[in-house]
Design a protein that fits this description.
The complex is a heterodimer of chains A (288) and B (262). With 288 residues, chain A is an alpha/beta fold. Chain A has helices at 60-68, 107-117, 122-135, 151-164, 181-198, 209-215, 249-276, 282-287, and strands at residues 3-17, 23-24, 30-45, 49-53, 75-80, 83-84, 92-95, 169-173, 201-206, 218-223, 228-234. Chain A folds into 2 domains: 3-91 and 169-287, P-loop containing nucleotide triphosphate hydrolases (Rossmann fold, 3-Layer(aba) Sandwich), CATH 3.40.50.300; 98-166, no CATH class. Chain A contains 8 helices and 11 strands. In chain A, strand 10 and strand 11 form a beta hairpin. Chain B is an all-alpha fold and 262 residues long. In chain B, 83% of the residues lie in helices and 0% in strands. The longest helix of chain B is centred in the C-terminal third of the chain and has 36 residues, at 173-208. Chain B is globular, with a radius of gyration of 23 Å. The two termini of chain B are 13 Å apart. Classes of the chains: A alpha/beta (288), B mainly alpha (262). Chain A binds chain B through residues 68-70, 88-90, 92-94, 96, 98, 100-105, 113-114, 116-118, 143-148, 165, 284-285, 287-288, and chain B through 1-2, 159-171, 175, 179-180, 183-184, 258-262.
Chain lengths: 288, 262
């Protein structure tokens, strides 16, 4: 299969005030740099479901936001469909943990947003949006406002919104971290169904090993200090996958493997993790 | 639930709170009537409410009251219009495009807004004369600050993730402004408007007591000067009624526009 996304030697260095490794400038302020991502190399195939797993501060979300075009990289290159990422565009859909629905728009209008940007005519827009709202199983809620929906429903709408303008790639940033366990299980199966139906390339950021194994073709294990891809694990579980697979011996084997990869990290770089943690809130601020 | 909720609202029993207020008002009027007629209070200074209402009715019919109400409202809305026209754009600028500048000039603006409007009435008269301009000017001055600050803080509290999402879909500046910033700010603007209108109405009445020839403030002041005690109470009653209608009106407007919040 063709390569859809490719990162080569990707690095991101923040200059920060008050860094521990910093030096005093002439005004007495401590300044320095913090390497969030260092030499990340990753190739994602077309139509692939790839997860990025790692502890807080390993730069997995940062990587996603660079892909989304919302954060600028420092060096290296990142290509989508052979073209260098140069700001946000409609070939990528992003789904965030906090849903980020537009509170003042109905479900229908939320899903239409990208189509409006794309200048799709009104009548056509409504039809397309309806189709995706039905795809995520919320057809009867199209006139509701986000405050009337549960967390799981909001995330489904966020998925419909990202799918509606037909991007090639879905970028998902811990999308199910805020919903309860049962809902999450249902959303997993639903996401796989939607993925199979729409054939999108999905990059899925999570800190849950189980979630990554259950969903993915491959799991990229990231380690912090500075953030880099440590290993990519092929998940050779048969598809379509049902919830029962989580209790299989094969699943347990992957879980142990990834867990060990992450464990080694902790022994080695525990001291750095606390420092890099401040980056967790960084992407959002950097965007504005 | 949406449709279900609407039906539920329609068939819901009339609001209990409304009944309580109504009963309280009627009880107050009855007490007033009794106190005045029984001599518990001097009816020369507190005429019975029936007499006040009777006079009010007569003044409404002969066109006196409407003239004063309209001239008060005209001043209020002229000042409000100016304050909105200037305060909202400045608020957007302050909150959205010039947060650094906002940091510098905010203390100055804060101090300006703290100036007691009553103390400023003479200043406005010196600068703008005793005519309409000074009254509209003082209303504008009182209204612009809450509107400006509410707008700026509204812009600043917009969820950055929502802006990021819009940007990630390739939305440009104009689309983000009209589709994210404006609707994301409007609820706060209403909050500012509400406090602005309440204060503005009070200040207007005081301004009308100095050098005006019409308006509810003038009516109250003039009646007092001429010992027309019943008309004084008519004036006070209508100040209360208009103030109440203004606040109900703006609440209704807000509920009709901001339909997306609980």
């Amino acid at each position: 299969m063709a390569i859809e996304i490719e990162a080569r030697g990707l690095s991101l260095v923040y200059s920060i005030r008050g860094a521990k490794n910093g030096r005093n400038d002439k005004n007495g302020k401590v300044s320095g740099t913090l390497t969030a991502l260092e030499n990340v190399n990753l190739a994602v195939r077309e139509g692939e479901f790839l997860s990025l797993v790692g502890p807080s501060g390993c730069g997995k979300s940062t990587f996603l936001y660079i892909l989304a075009g919302l954060i600028k990289k420092t060096s290296g290159s990142i290509l989508i469909g052979g073209k260098e990422v140069n700001g946000p565009a409609l070939d990528r859909g992003i789904i965030m943990q906090a849903y980020a629905l537009f509170p003042w728009r109905t479900v229908q209008k939320n899903v239409e947003f990208g189509l409006e940007v794309k200048k799709v005519p009104r009548a056509e827009r409504a039809g397309i949006a309806r189709g995706y709202i039905e795809l995520v199983g919320l057809g009867e809620f199209s006139d509701r406002y986000p405050f009337e929906l549960s967390g799981g429903m909001k995330q489904r709408i966020a998925i419909a919104r990202a799918l509606a303008y037909n991007p090639d790639v879905l970028l998902m940033d811990e999308p199910f971290a805020a919903v309860d366990e049962q809902t999450r299980g249902a959303l997993h199966e639903e996401l796989l169904r939607i993925w199979e139906e729409t054939q999108k390339t999905i990059i899925f950021v999570t800190h849950s090993i189980d979630e990554a194994i259950f969903l993915s073709d491959r799991v990229a294990v990231m380690t912090p200090g500075p953030g880099t891809v440590r290993k990519i694990v092929d998940i050779k579980l048969a598809r379509p996958r049902a919830s029962e697979i989580r209790t299989s011996a094969e699943f347990a084997k992957y879980r142990r493997e990834i867990w060990q990869l992450l464990q080694n990290r902790t022994d080695r770089t525990e001291a750095v993790v606390t420092e890099t943690c401040i980056l967790e809130s960084e992407p959002q601020e950097a965007v504005i | 639930m949406g449709i279900g909720m609407k039906t539920a609202k329609q068939i819901k029993k009339p609001n209990l709170g409304f009944f309580v207020s109504l009963v309280a008002i009627i009880a107050f009027f009855l007490l007033w009537e009794w106190a005045s007629r029984s001599g518990a209070v001097d009816s020369q200074f507190v005429p019975p409410v029936s007499k006040v209402l009777g006079d009010a009715w007569a003044l409404l019919l002969n066109g006196t009251l409407p003239i004063h109400i309209l001239s008060s409202l005209a001043r209020l809305f002229a000042g409000l219009g100016l304050a909105i026209a200037l305060g909202i754009p400045l608020g957007f600028l302050l909150g959205g495009w010039a947060p650094k500048l906002a940091g510098f000039i905010r203390p100055l603006l804060m101090n300006l807004s703290m100036l007691n409007p009553f103390a400023l009435i003479p200043v406005f008269m010196l600068l703008l004369g005793i005519g309409e301009a000074s009254k509209v000017g003082i209303i504008f001055w009182v209204l612009i600050w809450p509107i400006l600050f509410a707008t700026a803080s509204g812009v600043m509290q917009i969820d950055p993730a929502v802006v990021s999402i819009a940007r990630s879909m390739g939305a440009g500046g104009i689309k983000i402004f009209f589709d994210i910033i404006v609707p994301g700010t409007i609820n706060r603007v209403f909050t500012g408007l509400k406090s602005a209108l309440t204060l503005g109405f009070i200040v207007l009445l005081s301004a009308e007591m100095v050098g005006a020839k019409s308006g509810l403030g003038w009516l109250v002041f003039n009646s007092n000067k001429n010992y027309n005690i019943t008309r004084l109470y008519v004036g006070i009653l209508f100040v209360a009624v208009i103030g109440f209608l203004l606040s109900v009106g703006i609440d209704k407007l807000q509920k009709n526009i901001v339909v997306w919040e609980e």
